[in-house]
Amino acid sequence: MTHFRLAPLALSLFAALAASAHADEVSVAVAANFTAPMQKIAVEFEKDSGHKAVLSFGATGKFYAQINNGAPFGILLAADDTTPAKLAQEGKAVADSRFTYAIGQLVLWSKQAGYVDDKGAVLKTGDYRHIAIANPKLAPYGLAAMETLKNLGLTDQVTPKVVQGENIGQTYQFAASGNAQLGFVALSQVMEDGKLREGSAWIVPSSMHEPIRQDAIILNTAKDSAAAKALMDYLKGDKARAIIKSYGYAF
Fold first, then answer.
1. Total structural domains within the chain
2. Which residues are within 8 A (CB) of 219 and not within 5 positions of it... i.e. 6 or more apart?
3. Which of 204, 86, 80, 82 is nearest to 147 (CA)?
4. pLDDT tier at 61 (50, 70, 90 boundaries)?
5. Contacts of 5 (CB under 8 A, 6+ apart)
6. Where does molybdate bind (predicted)?
7. Is 2 annotated as a binding residue?
8. H or E stretch including 102?
């Protein structure tokens, strides 16, 4: 009997082809505040699993409406914990797949270095024309910003200066472009590798607003998807969590 032995290169090619044969992809609706970390996680996820995460970014409230209208997302990474719970209650998502993948931190930020002090007193004393805040009806970070202003007793003083972003991504753009001198944004948008990228900021104490628990859930369209299950498991792993933590999130 003749025996054949595959060369190492052929073996690795065979393994890659076998893996790709089982590879899958999943469409993921990602809360705008989680854009940067999720882009990094998706790259590592594809390298490590062979599966692909196709990402869309936006406001959690809008994603909810799109899902109700039949948008074919497989996973929702929300900016809150109420939307995934609601989808599960309505029978549109896999209830036991839901978990908190991150706890967001709100930050008052200015592109100008030294402008925002470490206690947020600039809200009361600063000579600013505009402050960017996400729509509190659609964006949990916007709701947290309004709760913070209420707790500081500054709602009436600050509200006339508010420019409202549709989501936290647009809100950040208002502040980053200088159209608003200040913005209540997600810490993840201005932090990378544990450091503020530019400007000045006040990390709002969590006691100033309700916790921003960000939950993930598998939607019914992906209940049998290997890629969806793999991604949810990956988000709980050490590599993904290290990336998430580097952008200022807690767990």
1. 2
2. 67, 73, 74, 75, 76, 87, 92, 93, 94
3. 204
4. confident
5. none
6. 60, 168
7. no
8. strand 99-104
Residue range 64-75, pLDDT digits in tens: 999 999 999 999
The answer to whether residue 2 scores a pLDDT higher than 60 is no
User: How are strands ordered across the β-sheet holding 182-186?
Assistant: 162-165, 131-134, 182-186, 106-110, 200-203
10 Å Cβ neighbour count for 51?
22
The annotation status of 41 as a binding-site residue, yes or no, is no
Tokens representing residue 116 in the block: 């925002």
Structural domain boundaries, residue 172: 105-208
**pLDDT of 194-215, one tens digit each?**
899 999 999 999 999 999 999 9
Q: Which two tokens stand for residue 241?
A: 């969590």
Helical (H) or strand (E) element with 17: helix 8-21
Q: Give the CATH number, domain containing residue 61.
A: 3.40.190.10
Domain assignment present for residue 241? The answer is yes
The CA-CA-CA angle for residues 205, 209, 210, to 5°, reads: 120
Residue-wise pLDDT for 181-197, tens only, equals 999 999 999 998 889 99
Q: At what angle do helices 35-49 and 238-246 cross, to 10 degrees?
A: 160
Q: Looking at the DSSP assignment, which residues form a beta bridge with residue 54?
A: 27
* 188 and 70 together in one domain: no
Distance in angstroms between the alpha carbons of the first and the last residue of the chain: 59
How many CB atoms are located within 10 Å of the residue 118 CB? 9
More confident residue, 170 or 251: 170
